[in-house]
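Researcher: Can you fold this with protoporphyrin IX containing FE in place?
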Amino acid sequence: MSARQLIEKLPSAFLPEVAGDADAIFQFQISEPCYLSIQNKRCTFTLGQAAAPSLTLTADDEVMQKVLRGETNGMVAVMTGKMKTHGNLKLGQSMTTFFDLDVLTPASKPSWLKRSLNKLRPAKNPSPAAMATASPAAMPEDSAAGGCPFQHGQAQGHGDGFVDKLLYMVTPVDPPGDVRNPYPDWAERRRSKRVEIETDRYGKDAGTLVYLYGHAEVIECLHNNEDFSSSILQNMYSSVMGAHILVGMDEPAHAGYRNLVAPALRPKLLTKWEESLIQVVVDELIVKLKAKGNKADLVADFTFAYPARVVGQVIGLPQDNFEQFQQWAMGILEGAADPDKAAECAKEVRAYLAPFIEARRTDRREDMISELVHAEIDGQKLNDEEIYSFLLLLLPAGIETTYRALGSMLFHLLSNPEQLNDVRNDRSLVNKAFEETLRVDPPVQLTPRVALRESKIGDTIIPENAVVLPLLGAANRDPAFISDNPEVYNLHRSPLRHVTFGNGVHTCIGLHLARLEIKIALNKLLDALPGLRFDDEEVIRLDAHIRGKSFRSPTALPVIWDDD
Ligand code: HEM
């Protein structure tokens, strides 16, 4: 498929006059009216009404410079030189922009773009226009391991060519850009089709994608692990996590492995960790937070570090090397944007873990490594590779999810001061605040499956090899599942339920730990920070919001509190 043919198939409501032999494509979605003008090779991109813009960016802007350095999450296309384009964008439309990379000076080419280009350039034939589909926004936003399921994996039925890689880079589930609220679109789609099959969005060779928007359909898929395999997850992450990724296994291998690792997260151990570890971590973080004064960004100063510290110690790693461990964890979490770096970090984590695993064989302690090393069912033990895979999976599964969920819960509570007050005054509501957050804004929106054979979901026939995407956040807001204002955050609703921890044999094994971590964090934050509330000026200045389509969490949580 030529670059031009591909471009024509991209889901763009707006195409520039001339795509030509452009070197790069940037695609981004807008959620507010915006206006684009180009004069004398100078581009102005205005968000909001043209007469009263909420944000204007020009090529000379400081913000634009941040874009070039890949540091912003703004809704911006970088456009210079030979590009020709004109037009207005409408609300909800996406736009594809083409520009000549050579016009950018080498110094101004952001590193993630160079990386993308290197990866996408076909090795045997460097002459065709190399294209990168990326957005300054997309990379940091949805770059976590376990993020966009297609960014560096091979689903069944797909080849390994240049176009395939390109196709994997942009999916309708994960369009680059600052996706603030994917839910209205999903609700709209659910109204017309609870199961949507897409066969031709990226051309015939791109395979079939199936989106599940309804709660019943999501449950049906997650329960039917005979027809819908999790192996797609194993394929996607094996280069980082090895050959034994629990979440990517099918039965019966999955059940055997899960039985072996599950005791490492059993409730008895959790009770022990509650006092000796989790509370200690929260207390330490709060001391640091308060040392700064009466204001903080709870993402930078609390939520980001918290689950990594807990999981590191739960695993059995010493505190003194914690920062290095967190750096590795972050490298692995960035796997979708930089698979090489993720693989390198995984290698280092293995080397780091090896002596601990060896030591725990003779010196058993109350930590997860000891549990894994000594786990045995019917004479069966875990081998080293199985232990590595499980520990590496915990970085995205146990850290990323909880950090995002905690941030989103704080964001929803701070945005609803009355409900925050209710929780402050009645701590039995803490759990409800968390469960309602998981319902209304899951930190992980989808967990893919691949159809092993032709089968059915509801009345819809799912073709063999189709990649099936159960959209957990859409399911949680299905009016057929939650009838009372499903779009609204309301921790008092009853019953309060969701599918955010999954369903069926792969249901989250760490849900008790996640709940415990959140309960302790929220209780202690409310105790230590009286009158905790949003710092409104900072919220506006930083444009703090929850963002993401496959992964969601707040960009910032600027807060203030009263003196003790
Ligand atoms: C709010 C926090 C969390 C959320 C929303 C979450 C969500 C999920 C979901 C949806 C699945 C099922 C995936 C699938 O069906 O393909 C899952 C599985 C899993 N989760 Fe969690 N998780 C969270 C926290 C944790 C924690 C704290 C840990 C461990 C420390 C953890 C470890 C795992 C593991 C190992 C699996 C694989 C289970 C299996 O395949 O049998 N998760 N999680």
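Model: Folded with protoporphyrin IX containing FE in place. The chain has 21 helices and 21 strands.
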